[in-house]
Structures are given as C-alpha cells and as structure tokens.
Design a protein that fits this description.
Elements: H1 2-11, H2 14-41, H3 51-66, H4 68-76, H5 81-105, H6 109-138, H7 143-171, H8 176-194, H9 215-234, H10 237-267, H11 272-325, H12 330-358, H13 361-389, H14 397-420
Amino acid sequence: MAVVRDLRVLLRLRDFRNLLAVRLLSQAADGVYQVALATYVVFSPEKQTSPAAIASAMAVLLLPYSAVGPFAGVLLDRWSRRQVFLYGNLLRAFLACVTGMLIVSHVPDWLFYASALSVTAVNRFVLAGLSASLPRVAGEGPLVTANALFPTAGTLAAVAGGGLAFLVRLLASDSNAVVVLLGAGLYLCAALASLRLAVGLLGPDRSPGPSGPSAAEGVALTVRGMAEGLRHLAARRDAARALTAMTMMRFCYGALFVTLLMLCRYSWSDTEADGLALLGVAVGASGAGFFTAAVITPWLVGRLGTLGSITVCAAGAAVLVPVLGLFFAPGPMLAAAFVLGLATQGAKISTDTAVQSRVDDEYRGRVFAVYDVLFNVAFVGAAAVAALVLPVDGQSAVLILSVSVLYAATAALLARQQRCFT
C-alpha cells in the first residue's frame, strides 16, 4: 500500500523521527495536564458542575491564550522553531509544577486558572511550531501521510497521557497535584528530546535579530504580519475553505464534548469516580477514531482530494451523530465518540495538508496561529451555546439535531464549492 510505503520513507528520516518524539512527549504531557485540570474542575466531589461552569472554565483557559496565537505566528516566523520547543517545554515544566503547588494549597479558583492559563499560553507556540516545522523534515512527497501520522500520533499520545493520568490519580489517592507533576516531567523530557534537532533545521529561513523585537515592535509586527498572513490565505482558496470547514466541525465537536461531560457526570453515574471512568472510556473510543482516521485518510485524500475528504467526514458525522446520540445511552454515545474522533481527525489531517501544501513556508507560522485561534474560539463558542441549551443531565435532542444540521450544511457548502470551481 502507498500509505505503508510512505510511512517507511518517513520513519527512515532521522529528523522526522526526532520531531515526532518532541510531539509525542509534548502531547502526552498535555494529556496528563488536561486530565488533571478536568478532574479538578469537573469531577471534584466538592464542586457542583453545570454546563455554564464548564463553559466558563473553557473561556478562562482558552479565550485569553487565543490572543497569544497571532503573536505566536509572527514570532515563529522570526524565532528558531527548535529553540521554541526547547525553552517552551522547559517553561511549561516549571509552570506545571506551580499549578501542582496551587492545587495542594487550595488557593482561590482564579489563581489556579491563571496558572493553568500560563501553561496553555506557551502551548500555542509549541503546537503551532510543530505544524509549521513538519514540511521541513518530511519533504513534499509523503506530506499527506506525514499529516496523518504526525498529529494523529500526537493526539494518541495525549490520549495515552490521559489514561496514564487516570491510573496515577487512582494509585495516588486521587491526588491531582501528583498528576500535574507527572505532566511536568514529560514536558521536561520533550525539551530534552528537542536537543536532538539542529538549531537551524526547522526554520524559518530568515534570521531573527540578535535582541528580538521589543514589545511595541511585537505588537506592530503582529498586526502587520496577521494582515499579510490573512491576505496570503485568502489568495489560496482551497486552504481557506478547508480551514473554514474545520472551524465549523470544531464547533460541533465542542458542543458534543460538553454534552458528553454532563452525561458522564450526572446521567450515567452515581459518583464522581464512576463518571470519570466513563469519561476515560469515551476518550479511549475517540482515540480509536483518531487512529482509524490516520489509517484511512491518506487513501481518502488520494481518491477525493483534501476538500472531498473533509466533505465525506462532515457528511458522515451529520448522519451518524443523531442516529447514535439521540439514545443518550452509554453504548451508542461511545460509538458516537468513535465516529466523532474519526470524522474530526480525518478532517484535521486533510486541513493540515491543504494549509501546508498551499501556504508558503514564510507564512506558515502565522497561518497555523490563525488556525489555532479559530480552533479555540469555535470550541469555547460551542461550550457557551451548550450552556444555554443543555439541562444539567446533558440530555438535549435540540442540541444533537442542531449539530447534525451544522455538519450537513458544512458538507453541502463544500460540495457546492467544489462543483463551482472544477
């Protein structure tokens, strides 16, 4: 198979393997850290969680650091991306240790959120840099397969990290602080793994100034750079359409994620521990969908193109989400989690490929930063909508059907645009 052949080619590339190791360790640490946050915010016995509380937590954690995204893109096109991985992961390791101390100290929620926000803000630089660096180590030939393997392996690493966090939390007497410290250790390992990459290997080709931009220059660079990046993206219609469709699908995923959280917390379990275990199973089902997407998406893109692949993913979700989700029972919803993992990751692989193959290298950092901002704003917006619609038990047929309609509209618009421009 072509996919297997491309995988062999990629895995023989030392620099690709080294960059993959950085991604796996970074995202495994993200998975550990996110589970610690989720269990502390949503599944702590002393907290009475509601959809509005979840939406508020997501807004606090995601919206402010989305503002970092444009700065990340401009600076990633000026700074050594390898050095971003090194110092970014070292900083996250330190900040994760601070979060662990705050959990033990039982500080006010706002201080805890500020610490968590600091970790996720640095995360923008690391993830956007990883996506922008991939073409430098993969080459143009197997780029679709690289996009199938690279982010999907990272997502599976995050799922594995989350599973490890569940296990450690159980063995360590439900200690979220110990889980956070485990995440800090993995961030440190990611920093050390980045040392295996040459400083100038990952670009950008332009050399930054010796002192870097000042704060005022950084603001000016951000405004000018984002305008340039958006103009560059607007001139590349396939990439812009893929990014728009992916944003809509991310919105749908966010609304269903909050639904699943509330079902696990209140409808399917009597205790926080049982709810957390069910959420872990759901995350595993979604991870299986991510893995399946990595296997089949390169073949699907080869047959239908990137936009055609996204269209199929959106259409499949539009049909299967109501078929499975309207039961509001664990079995069908776990199947829905698999479908959503497959559709969302399949669309993301295709979108990454469209952006990377059609956006010039000197703009990739800025465009992927825009990508990240859209991802987070869509997710938080979905959580806000879910907070207005969902009852406490998470059972809302209106939300399920609305999400299905949005998936269908995304597929229909993509299909129409493809017909108009072919």
